């Protein structure tokens, strides 16, 4: 719904430098003008394009992953699900404070409803603009936590923030993956709020989190 690629340049450059990975950002179309499934379709189409053009991009088509933060983590999770469903192999998924369930009664939605930047009311608004009704609530490509199975998904790196309304979402998605045998590296950062990961200029914890993701990524890449 909001944000644009430029605000992630510093964080993604640091992640690329620390991990040695090539990072391709997706300027997907955004709600409310382009609700689900358009943003999701854009992201999945990009994955297929990258695979088809891997040689020209000088990357390994057998060592690709998906990543995103917040709404982007929802899209990355959904792309990972569809990739599994269509036998497209991914090496990893990086999910930074994902919003993967449309359940506003979780502990963090209650405890951190206001006062920490992102609000519970704000998340209700974002979900409504993206899905525009409840007709997609059972579609795992829209609400990834609603998938019937998580077996066979790519290994996941999941990062959350202590004072984020989405904290419970990330915790619960990590547990769903683990329960179905997916390798999960999970870390919640104390004292942090939603959005900290990309804010290198605001908190040193951003650099710490990016460095951790880079090191973990080196360990799970084939």
Task: Offer a quick outline of the entry.
By secondary structure, the chain is an alpha/beta fold. It has 8 helices and 4 strands; from the N terminus they run αααβαβααβαβα. It has a single domain, classed as Alpha/Beta hydrolase fold, catalytic domain (Rossmann fold).
Protein architecture, described:
The protein is of the alpha/beta class and 222 residues long. The chain has one domain (5-220): Alpha/Beta hydrolase fold, catalytic domain (Rossmann fold, 3-Layer(aba) Sandwich), CATH 3.40.50. The chain has eight helices and four strands. It has helices spanning 9-19, 38-52, 54-57, 71-85, 107-111, 120-131, 167-179, 204-220, and strands spanning 65-69, 92-96, 156-163, 184-193. It has a four-stranded parallel beta sheet with strand order 1-2-3-4, with helices on both faces. Helix 1 (9-19) packs across helix 8 (204-220) and helix 2 packs across helix 4. It is globular and about 45 Å long.
Give a quick set of tags describing it.
single chain; 222 residues; alpha/beta; Rossmann fold; 4-stranded parallel beta sheet; 8 helices; 4 strands
Low-confidence stretches: none
Count of folded domains: 1
CATH class: Alpha Beta
Distance between the termini: 34 Å
CATH topology term: Rossmann fold
Return the CATH architecture: 3-Layer(aba) Sandwich
CATH level-four homologous superfamily name: Alpha/Beta hydrolase fold, catalytic domain
The main pleated sheet reads as: 4 strands, parallel
Globular, elongated, flat, extended or rod-shaped: what is the shape? globular
Mean pLDDT, all residues: 97
